[in-house]
Design goal:
Residues 1-23 form the signal peptide. With 831 residues, this protein is of the alpha+beta class. The chain has 13 helices and 44 strands. The protein binds beta-D-galactopyranose.
Length: 831
């Protein structure tokens, strides 16, 4: 055992040396990256890394500079992203590095902003991304086994990894070349699934192969593996993902403590309400991490963005990937989360030397209260006092001074005397974003086109035939959500049957002789379901056409790629009233991937299509709609409100904005009825809290990036909808996302700062009260507090008509009526 450890230590030492050497490429601005047990060592200096995830395909190149700049202004020094294999290589050796897949442009923007970058190649990436980023065509390769030790998978993975690394090298993107990349990741959370894989020996060989293959790439910066809890290859750094990572310890004696995913919120599914992780809790987790020797921390997500096109995985993940991140889906600053974390970053950055060079001393003040002191050789020190009690505020004495530390919070004392920051005390304003109606409201003139379904109601038109009901992902290579399964049978007299189809999901439409017999979709989770509908068969030939549709492919779990979609074996049966069963499962089935409208690219609105402005139908399944509209003026983000529609896909000027499903109403979960930032935040085991949107439309608004629009006045913009299930476009309208009410709390001595955005100004100050206890920003419960007239007047005078203002809460605000006590709550309106 000891010998093993010694060998391991030696190999680690060697690794650090190798990494340092490789990282050094002669040149004026090259940066050397290595690491030790405390931190990444960049150009000989231990550093703290404050990083944020921004996934380039989830926004547009036009948005990138602003997102990156906002991250920098928010106090981050690093941007992290996954690499999206199936977006870059949609078909074997046909590559896409254009538009929002222009990864090189993204990294150049990071470099231009003077920030570091973390490149998480994966190329399995999970990420609520379709198939976890793996191309579905891998399934066509003989003997392919995903994420195990086998030549086909390893060959494809290495080919793609090498391609990305070489692109980065060619553009001098690695730190040793003078570029921004300081860390690289291979695989993703393999440790979470490894023990559930079918072949343990193969799994071990694979994960070690991954590490060796990665190291052979000579990128000159360290390789990491996240959540590789057991079986960590010696030549990578193991890192942590989770809501909290302060207790994590990487295996290996000289590894820094790296947190690759601090989940700032959570992803949304069509049937789920919106997840919110309180700013106080995110800040608590970060402060705990740095208090406990953490040195590299990345927010997953800092900007979540949008799952454009068919990119969402899951299945059943929405088109929005907002994530409750510090920057919202559209790139707006989300307050107070953004500002509260920014203030923490400022304090932590001021303590950088202490955190990574200081000698650490811990004092337990009670079982859940701890003071930590980092002292430098020059005698200066920086401290934290943490209180991990769920609901017990504490008064403690530390080094002769008394401190009050609220429950579930950390106080940060950069000089070990004064509390510069407490994670539970939010000094940043809250901004409530509103969707403002624009000129195009309700005024859209629709024309329509039926999806050409007729050939689908035969058993002849198709790509191939089989006597089996096949799995959808393999059959269609995920080129479309849709796969037709068609067959026929000849009967004597007219007869009633019940049609039963057993399918693995996600949706099924059944047609008999061209008539829609019914529709059903799966429940999120167990995607298996049985479709059932009464049907009438006529004398002679009858056609049964089944259209199966997927809603994003699975992205997580052991052997997730083998989770089937589509009718797979069925059975498909007709059962008569007398119990006679006709099993169609082994009939001859004709297959056709995709719809005609997709093939014809109707969304591009090419000339020659017969759009009709007459008798625009509602509730008609398989219908294309089109309208032109004027882009809303200004710079605020644009969304399209799809209220009234059912399920389908929305395009603007040919850009696929993603799947829509506003008929899906989010369930009511207990988490909508309680929110306390104190206590552990989790999003599973029915322990969710701070949810909103229970019983509301799962996703009503869809992001239309400004760069997709013709902004010039009078310039036409076209919206095309493919309504699959039957809806009403009458209420569809375009809106902009603006700051509405803004609110702030202040204690005496604090300054109240309020700000609007996008040129809007404060139009009124609505509340300036002490002791407000009910409601929330934009809807404080009247009468719960005591209004301070002097405060209201002073803040009104200072703020109305301004884009932003700062007012100090002084004795003058203590009106006689209220006896001037406690926290002052201010609410104003931007318009
Ligand atoms: C992690 C995974 C990420 C993402 C996250 C949840 O387990 O590594 O890719 O899926 O969960 O948003």
């Amino acid at each position: 055992m000891r010998a093993n450890n010694t060998a391991r230590a030696l190999s680690l030492a060697l690794l650090v040396l190798v990494v340092s050497v490789l990282g050094f490429v002669p040149g004026a601005s090259c940066t050397e990256v290595s690491y030790d047990e405390r931190a990444l060592v960049i150009d000989g200096q231990r550093r703290i890394i404050l990083s944020g995830s921004i996934h380039y395909p989830r926004s547009t190149p036009e948005m990138w500079p602003d997102l990156i700049q906002k991250a920098k202004d928010g106090g981050l020094n690093t941007i992290e992203t996954y690499v999206f294999w199936n977006g870059h290589e949609p078909r074997p050796r046909q590559y896409n590095f254009e538009g929002n897949y222009d990864i090189m442009r993204f990294f150049k923007e990071v470099q231009k902003a003077g920030m570091y970058a973390i490149l998480r190649i994966g190329p399995y990436i999970c990420g609520e991304w379709n198939y976890g980023g793996l191309p579905a065509w891998l399934r066509d390769i003989p003997d392919m086994q995903f994420r195990l030790h086998n030549e086909p998978f390893e060959r494809e993975m290495e080919t793609f990894t090498t391609l990305i690394v070489n692109k980065m090298k060619d553009a001098n993107m690695f730190a040793g070349q003078g570029g921004p990349i300081i860390l690289t990741q291979i695989e993703n959370e393999y440790g979470n699934v490894q023990s559930n894989l079918p072949d343990q020996e193969s799994a071990t060989k694979y994960i070690h192969w991954c590490a060796d293959m990665a190291n052979k790439q000579n990128v000159g910066v360290p390789w990491i593996m996240c959540q590789q809890s057991n079986d960590v290859p010696p030549n990578v750094i193991e890192t942590c993902n989770g809501f909290y990572c302060h207790d994590f310890k990487p295996k290996g004696s000289n590894m820094p403590k790296i947190w690759t995913e601090n989940w700032t919120g959570w992803f949304k599914a069509w049937d789920k309400p919106d997840y919110h992780r309180p700013a106080e809790d995110v800040a608590y987790a970060v402060a705990m991490f740095f208090q406990n020797r953490g040195s590299v921390q990345n927010y997953y997500m800092y900007h979540g963005g949008t799952n454009f096109g068919r990119t969402s995985g899951g299945p059943y993940i929405t088109t929005t990937y907002d994530y409750d991140a510090p920057l919202d889906e559209y790139g707006n600053i989300r307050q107070p989360k953004y500002g509260h974390l920014k203030a923490l970053h400022t304090v932590l950055t001021s303590m950088e030397k202490h955190l990574v060079y200081g000698q650490q001393n811990e004092t337990n003040l009670d079982d859940k209260v701890k003071a930590t002191k980092y002292t430098l050789d020059d005698g200066s020190s920086a401290c934290f006092i943490s209180n991990s009690h769920d609901n017990k505020d504490v008064n403690v004495t530390f080094e002769g001074s008394a401190y009050q530390v609220p429950a579930w919070s950390v106080s940060v004392l950069p000089d070990c005397k004064t509390v510069a920051y407490n994670t539970a005390k939010v000094k940043t304003q809250t901004s409530v974003m509103v969707k403002k109606e624009s000129a195009a409201k309700g005024g859209l003139k629709w024309s329509w086109l039926p999806e050409f379904l007729r050939p689908s109601f035969t058993d002849s038109y198709g790509s191939f035939k089989s006597n089996e009901l096949l799995e959808q992902i393999v059959t269609g290579a995920d080129e479309s959500d849709y796969l037709w399964y068609k067959t026929s049978l000849t009967r004597g007299p007219k007869e009633q049957f019940t049609l039963y189809v057993n399918t693995t999901g996600h949706e099924l439409y059944a047609f008999v002789n061209g008539e829609l017999a019914g529709y059903k979709h799966a429940v999120n989770g167990p995607y298996l379901f049985q479709f059932e509908a009464p049907v009438t068969l006529k004398p002679g030939k009858n056609y049964i056409s089944l259209l199966s549709a997927t809603v994003g492919l699975k992205n997580y779990g052991a052997s997730f790629e083998l989770m089937p979609a589509g009718i797979v074996g069925g059975p498909v049966k007709l059962v008569s009233a007398h119990g006679n069963t006709i099993d169609l499962s082994n009939n001859t089935w004709t297959y056709k991937t995709g719809l005609f409208g997709e093939q014809k690219q109707i969304h591009l609105d090419k000339p020659g299509l017969r759009w009709s402005p007459f008798a625009v139908p509602t509730n008609r399944p398989f219908t294309w709609y089109k309208a032109t509209f004027q882009a809303p003026a200004g710079t605020e983000a644009v969304v399209v409100d799809l209220v009234g529609l059912n399920k389908g896909v929305v395009y603007v000027n040919g850009h696929n904005l993603g799947r829509y499903w506003p008929s899906y109403v989010a369930g009511d979960m207990d988490g909508c009825h309680r929110c306390d930032y104190r206590g552990e935040y989790v999003t599973w085991n029915n322990q969710e809290k701070c949810l909103t949107g229970c019983g509301e439309v799962g996703q009503r608004f869809y992001h239309v990036p400004r760069s997709f629009l013709n902004a010039a006045h009078g310039a036409p913009n076209t919206v095309v909808l493919f309504e699959e299930a039957g809806g009403d476009p009458a209420k569809v309208n375009f809106r902009t996302v603006a700051v509405g009410p803004v609110c702030a709390d202040a204690e005496k001595g604090d300054a109240v700062t309020l700000a609007c955005a996008h040129g809007r100004t404060i139009s009124s100050v609505d509340t300036a009260s002490f002791g407000v206890s009910g409601g929330q920003c934009g809807a404080y419960e009247g009468g719960s507090g005591c209004e301070s007239k002097p405060a209201l007047e002073a803040i009104t005078a200072a703020c109305v008509g301004k884009k932003w203002c700062t007012v100090s809460y002084t004795d003058a605000f203590d009106s006689a009526d209220c006896k001037g006590s406690g926290v002052l709550t201010v609410q104003a309106t931007c318009s």
